[in-house]
Amino acid sequence: MVKRFTMLHILLFFLTICTTLTAGMLQKGINPIAEPWRFYQGLPFALTLMTILMAHELSHFFAALRHNTEATLPYFIPAPSIIGTFGAFIKMKSPILTRTALLDIGASGPLAGFLVSLAASAAGLTFSDVVPRPPGGAEMELGDSLLFWALTKIIFGKNIPEGFDVLLNPVAFAGWIGLFITAMNLLPIGQLDGGHVAYAVWGTATNRLSRVLVAALVALGIFFWPGWLVWALFLTVTGLGHPPVYYRETPLPTSRRRVAAVSLVIFVITFMPAPFNVNF
Predict the structure, then answer these.
(1) Residue 191: CB partners within 8 Å, gap ≥ 6?
(2) Whose CA is closest to 87, among 55, 116, 124, 40?
(3) pTM value?
(4) Each residue of 167-203: pLDDT tens digit?
């Protein structure tokens, strides 16, 4: 069945373009109300982030089509935030029948989003600047995943003196956000993408794992970043259990177990205990 965009899809997509464009302008110090004609300066950030989100969600969508699972087209979520969006999602309209289908649908989005985010991060870092740290006052720093730290070392080497830091180009910042979103989605909890992958591999044992990992998120929220507390609450409210697939007795092929292993590696190298740090 060929899916069509509804007016709601189009409206949300247009609004998210506007909010991410506004976020991109604000990052450049531009007042979008006073200087709307400078909108083009917000395009690098907005288009990069929208491309990452689109790659993620359309990969889910086409994987669902391959396995004869009915799914909606992507819904984008505009938001008045520093990045202009709360992400995007598709909704499954029919049951997922096999473990292979579940893994393909769950892993496809993060893998596609990761590749686009990696390219954006590498390209953006190449055009980023090394600048002095502010002399005093509050300062927000972005956390480093293993991958982003490695990219920074590869591109800048030892060219970052003491008291200096990398000021991310808008494309690099969008790439950083994409990698952060990838890690959050790959958490093997509930019905997150990582939860789908884990359930395809381990079955109902994933439900117990979800409870353990939510407790770990609470600990991370207390000691590292309070946002994990919100994420733990959201996941608990939406449900930590995973619905069974119809033919769960059918084993997962070795090729899909390799995809699951790759997903786990991507999660490890993109996860950040403290994605945002505020120094005073």
Answers:
(1) 238, 239, 242, 243
(2) 55
(3) 0.93
(4) 899 999 999 999 999 999 999 999 999 999 999 999 9
Say how far apart CA 234 and CA 216 lie, in whole Å.
Answer: 14
Backbone phi, psi, residue 191, to 5°: -105, 25
What single letter denotes the amino acid at residue 116?
V
Q: Residue 2: its pLDDT value, please? A: 46
Mean pLDDT, range 17-36, rounded to an integer: 93
d(CA 237, CA 49): 28
Q: Beta 85-89 vs 75-78: how paired, if at all?
A: antiparallel
How far is Cα 236 from Cα 241, in angstroms, rounded to an integer? 9
Give CA–CA dist 72/99, Å, rounded.
21
Spatial CB neighbours of 216, under 8 Å, sequence gap ≥ 6 = none
Instruction: Return d(Cα 111, Cα 201) in angstroms, integer.
Output: 17
Cβ–Cβ < 8 Å for 32, 19: no
The Cα 122–Cα 130 span in angstroms is 15
The confidence score (pLDDT) of residue 1 equals 45
Sequence-ordered list of residues with C-beta below 8 angstroms from that of 210, at least 6 positions apart, any chain = 188, 189, 190, 195, 235, 240, 241, 242
pLDDT, one tens digit per residue, over 201-248 is 999 899 999 999 999 999 999 999 999 999 999 999 988 888 888 887
Please state, in angstroms and rounded to a whole number, the distance separating the CA atoms of residues 160 and 154: 12
Position 133 confidence tier, pLDDT thresholds 50, 70, 90? confident
Q: Do 196 and 243 form a contact (C-beta atoms < 8 A)?
A: no
